[in-house]
Amino acid sequence: MSVVGQALVGMELxxxxxxxxxxxxxxxxxxxxxxxxxxxxxxLTAISNLPKNLRARLxxxxxxxxxxxxxxxxxxxxxxxxxxxxxxxxTVETVWMPEGExxxxxxxxxxxCPVDCKFCLTALMGLERGxxxxxxxxxxxxxAAENNLAANPGRVNVVMxxxxxxxxxxxxxxxxxxxxxxxxxxxxxxxxxxxSTSGIIPKIEELGREPxxxxxxxxxxxxxxxxxxxxxxxxxKYHLKDLIEACRAYPLRPWEKxxxxxxxxGGVNDTDADARRVVRLLARLNAKVNLIALNPGPGIPFETPxxxxxxxxxxxVKGSMPCFVRKPRGLDVYAACGQLKRMESKEKTHxxxxxxxxxxxxxxxxxxxxxxxxxxxxxxSHTSSRWPNVE
Length: 391
Ligand code: SF4
Fold this sequence. Notes:
By secondary structure, this protein is α/β, with parallel strands linked by helices. Helices cover 32% and strands 17% of the residues. It has helices at 13-20, 26-38, 52-61, 133-146, 170-181, 201-208, 225-231, 240-249, 272-281, 307-318, 345-351, 364-379; strands at residues 68-74, 80-85, 91-99, 102-106, 110-112, 127-130, 156-160, 193-197, 215-219, 258-264, 287-293, 323-325. Helix 6 links the parallel strand 8 (193-197) and strand 9. Helix 9 packs parallel to helix 10. The radius of gyration is 21 Å and the shape is elongated. The structure holds iron/sulfur cluster (SF4). Iron/sulfur cluster binds at residues 113, 115, 117, 120, 122-123, 163-165, 198, 219, 338.
């Protein structure tokens, strides 16, 4: 089958060999693979070890497939939120979070999301479509190019926690994971890639059978079946009790722990009783818990809990298993967890985000969220926290 015309990014070595056809010796495919994924060229004509006529053929027949930056929003904390334009003109969001010598790239697996979590802005978009493996990998390549991430992929974490439910796009997520982790290519260690799911049970089982797969994080967010049904209607189909059973059966690798993400919603799921129920739910699992105080957003009908509440919840869970508080990143540019929703023009004007690179001085939301962020951070300075909590 001819794959001529497909983007090169997203192709594995066998795909490249098939795309080039019999006319080219097989080592040419390896040279192209090396240039795209290991050397991360962003211009096909720059692959200087290829003959001129092959470079011309590539440029004519194959788009490279690294998405373009449509918009970039810079946070006061160094986080950058990117709106990336795909080949069909649709856009997707990716977040870059530098932290000292390490950094984390939060990528999307779908445009929008069909899972209707009540605390998440992305849910308000609905689902437009899933991303191809190339579009998933392309986000990492674009962020690497924009931020000069040439060397040492071992210091980069990738989290599939942007837009979308990764397990509803599993074949593409798995192919992207193979490309991201291939030592001959991008070479990000498997233990530095994490996928977060709302709890699509049959797909968790399918993921567990994959030889190359990201670490698994489960977005828990409730301590009872009823509470989770309200916050995450997907629970009506995939019950909390069965989700925990699927987690018990999940084949962890020797170095791996399950991560449970828990968004704390003030007065809803953040009581000490909730914390104790979480401990009981997760008993006998090799697990850790990441707490995220709700990141606010327009249309989200919940409040961020106070620092003391977060600390109390953490202390209870921490008595039984590792429990961390995730530091919010990029709140002022809507880059934090659960905030990735493409801004419509009306909202852009309201937020001051629609005019090129957003700057704190021109973004009216910045003053609100940055000060709130600083207050939140200082209020919780006595709590133990580490971020990012990605090993
Ligand atoms: S939290 Fe994740 S799964 Fe739920 S709606 Fe948002 S993007 Fe989708």
